[in-house]
Amino acid sequence: LSPQYVRAIAPYQPGRPIAEVARELGLAEHDIVKLASNENPLGPSPRALVAIENALANIALYPDGSGYDLKAALTRRFGVPAEQIVLGNGSNDILELVARAFLAPGTSAVFSRHAFAIYALATQAAGAEGIETAAHDFGHDLDAMLDALRADTRVVFIANPNNPTGTWLSNADLLAFLQRVPENVIVVLDEAYGEYLPQDKQSDALVWLQRFPNLVVSRTFSKAYGLAGLRVGYALTSRMVADMMNRVRQPFNVNSLALVAAAAALDDNDFIARSYALNQLGMRQMIQGLLLMGLDYIPSFGNFLAIRIGNATAMYRRLLEKGVIVRPIGNYAMPEYLRVSIGLAAENTQFLQALESALKEQA
Ligand code: PMP
Q1: Does residue 153 line the site of ligand 1, with CB under 6 A?
Q2: What are the residue boundaries of the Aminotransferase class I/classII large domain, all occurrences included (predicted)?
Q3: Is the confidence metric ipTM above 0.95 for this complex?
Q4: Is 109 helix (H, G, I), strand (E, B) or coil?
Q5: How confident is the model at residue 363 (pLDDT cuts 50, 70, 90)?
Q6: How far is the CA of 310 from the centre of ligand 1 (A)?
Q7: Domain boundaries in the chain?
């Protein structure tokens, strides 16, 4: 009964939950390591927990559908007025709101090969055509993306850094790209992993909002802020685009606990600094371990690494049997790669040891 474009959708495959894998293996949950969903191994910002406790008494009430307090906090932080902010049930919701507001059958969206899977899914769900461009060293080829724009193209999706490859585009390259994209094409700059970039590579995107009303900067509290389970993300954009996105948004798309937690976590610079530092250390630990095993990987600017492993599905299963959950990324046209999130030092060690013993078994 569904339209053909809905039936054609290959569902998103999330990382396996710890409880399910523990049950399957007959292990305790604390024996399982999950490095499959790019979550923050430090847990949530402690300020978020306090805010949630204080807000629990109010869960009989609907949340503030306008997200007044969180938007005010975002305005204080980024200098972007509330009319130019859209809140989402995770940044996933932001990506879907863009698709719903600007795509329809007869239009198209452009995204890169190996780019975050939701771009293709949201495009398809809107009945629009997805145009996938060739990658450059596993990252976005911005020239190829410009060349791919058609008269019916309404949206371009770019992840910076990208998941699952960890590739990164410079501010200079992105600015040059924006200058060449026609005004009637929405450019979504997905910065889900932006907080993991070093100081000298931080995004200039907010400065560009003034000049490019077609720019949508998408961010999330799921990664560095450690609030993935609450589902809250946001878009910073022009008044016009925010207005369109809000028209197709569910009235209460962000729940009340998520709203207060995000507002409390936003200015927890100390927590973000700790998350960044831990990720840097863990990334070095992982890379060192991989090099010792003679394994190839894609240099990453995120909190995860794509590792070239041969038959990644087989290795994924072998690691799973050892209680280590990672992600094969065959659905990203990378059947030889496993994606592993950077965890705590002990989790990284457990992963590296499991990988080493799995490689020995294989040999
Ligand atoms: N963008 C990218 C590039 C991602 O990797 C993810 C999470 N996997 C998201 C957006 C969506 O995350 P969330 O909905 O939790 O904000």
Answers
A1: no
A2: 31-354
A3: yes
A4: strand
A5: confident
A6: 26
A7: 4-43+270-362, 46-267
